[in-house]
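Hi all, long-time lurker, first post. I run a small reading group and we've been trying to get comfortable going from sequence to structure in the token notation. Rather than ask abstract questions, I figured I'd post a concrete chain and ask someone more experienced to write out its structure so we can walk through it together at our next meeting. Sequence below, copied exactly:
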Amino acid sequence: MHCREMWLVRMVVLSMFASTGSSFQNTPTRGPLMGRKWDRKGRAGSSQHLKGFSRVKRQEDSRHAYSDGENDVEPLIIDRGPYFDKSTSKNVTALVGKTAYLGCRVRNLGNRTVSWIRHRDLHLLTVNRFTYTSDQRFIALHNPQTEDWTLQVRYPQHRDAGTYECQVGTTPPIGLSMYLSVVEPVTTLLGGPEMYINKGSTMNLTCIIKHSPEPPPSIYWTHDQVEINYDSPRGGVSVITEKGDVTVSYLLIQRANDKDSGKYTCHPSNANPKSLTVHVLNGEYPAAMQHGGQLRLEYPFAVIFLSLLVTLGT
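-- Answer (accepted) --
Happy to help. Here is the structure in token form:
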């Protein structure tokens, strides 16, 4: 009996395992199965593998969400409107009768208008490229390929000096002012209008040009309306010119003789000419000669220095 009872117990236990086997397959157990994760199909995988899968999936989901959002957000565009490039707008100094140009550069103009206004009488001169004044000396210049708007003033006179404004038609309008100076260079010949020198001495004629916006590119001298040739057979004739805010030209003629008498004229290229008459004396001392020594008394060291230069160069 004892063996038969043992056999019955074993059969009951085996039948219990057979009826509950499927539930054990999906239940984590101790031992090698601990720490395992199960997918939806009942397949086991490591925690590291599943974590990596989840991370990639989240990254993919976030990229899709961002790309979908991009289509819903319009790009941000900041339009600051028109403004002036002040690096090209400067005060201008012009010569009387020589065309002057006032510059204005406008960025981001769009469809706004550009006008030039004279402050002296608040007169509207131009709008875009059209002239709005009866004075046709004022012209607006503009190349569509650039952002520059230039006011041209032809044959400027002293009365044209003053403040001019480049104005853009925004709401409210914006403007940039600049000053136009109109000058007329002054040419002076020291010792004129009559100069008396002794025969055999060195003639020094000094021409001074002031109030010029730039040094004259060239200066030439004439004697009785004939341009002086510094390489003539006579020799001893030279010119020294010092350019700057005040330009000075020295005409030096050594060993003056009777033929050197006459009218001498200084011709700056950007200023009016100036003349004086030289008298070479043979020992006479007229009363007028007392006034003719102004140059030598006013610039004694300059005369001596320049005379030495001419002597050493010959």
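A couple of things your group might point at:
Residues 112 and 169 are 6 Å apart (CA to CA).
The longest strand covers residues 174-183.
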